[in-house]
Amino acid sequence: MTSFLKEGMVGLDDQGVRPLPGNDRLGQYPRRKVTAMPTSARSPRTSPSRSWIKVARLFAAVIALTVVVTLVLIAQANSGGSRKEVISAKATSNISRAVAPTVAAAGADRPITVVGIGDSVTSGSNCACQAFVGLYAAELAAKRGLKTSSVNLGVPGWTSSQLLLSLTRPGAFPDQVAKADILLVTIGANDLVSLEGRLGSGGCATPCYLPVVASVGQNVERIVAAARATRPDHLVTILVTNYWDVFQDGDVGVAKNGEPFEIWSDTLTRAENAQICDGARLAGAICVDLYQPFKGNGSKNPTALLAADGDHPNSAGHHLIASALLAKTPLPIP
Length: 334
Known about the structure:
Strands 2-1-3-4-5 form a five-stranded parallel sheet, sandwiched between helices. The protein contains twelve helices and five strands. The two termini are 67 Å apart. Residues 1-53 and 79-108 have low confidence and may be disordered. The protein has two domains: 48-97; 110-327, SGNH hydrolase (Rossmann fold). Helices cover 50% and strands 7% of the residues. The longest helix has 31 residues, at 48-78. Helix 8 packs parallel to helix 10 and helix 9 (250-257) crosses helix 10 (259-282). It has helices spanning 25-28, 48-78, 83-109, 120-123, 132-144, 160-168, 172-177, 206-229, 250-257, 259-282, 291-295, 315-327, and strands spanning 112-118, 148-152, 182-186, 237-241, 286-288. Strand 3 (182-186), helix 8 (206-229) and strand 4 (237-241) form a beta-alpha-beta unit.
């Protein structure tokens, strides 16, 4: 094998022994007699000609780099993009690739429990179909890549006061609610049953119904707080819906109650919806509007989304509610 000596290293002595490094290598070991090579035979470390060659090569590399950068900038300008935009797009792409596996992994690691509480709309009354609570859980699993399960605790006829009482009283009901990662709440229509007596007169003015709808909003706020209190150490996503109509609607409603009553019922529904959403937001929940999906700006006929009683949603209505809830569900889910 050919041996090369690095610069600064000491060669072998006359006996073929390499001296150990020290503070004074020449003082510790006898000097070797070195025969100088002829001047013409020496190979200097750097010669003027080679220095100029290196400088020329460096200069050429700088020019080439400058040309490449210039061409890139011209191409970006012609395409309407800036270097800042290109960098931003790359950064966004990298973030997306980093976040997507994280969201998917969360769904794969921990199942999400969806619990629905409320009245007959929640329970799925008068519809031989799956209620929106189960549909929502299924859509959440399919579209968000999560493992989900659902529990429907809706009770037909319940008022907001009854729901609040059940949440604050020890028992199986609050224990079930405590398992929720996502809680769906629909309540308040039955609080207005006493106002149905105004049917013959076509309703009543604001002073008549305002105290009732205001109490619903207050109860919704308390319901959300009570639901969180069932498991204070657990972050739960709470979605509260309002209504398309608190009484019968569509063709059935008009045929049975008359158009003047339906107009007043719409006014009453809008007033209660506002109170429900205010109460939900004050308690830190998300309000999900169902009026617009069912009735648009109020001119849409919701008959195709209602059961034969004109009061409860049919299968299409429950699917619509599930979709509205999913659209408002934030990610990541705590």
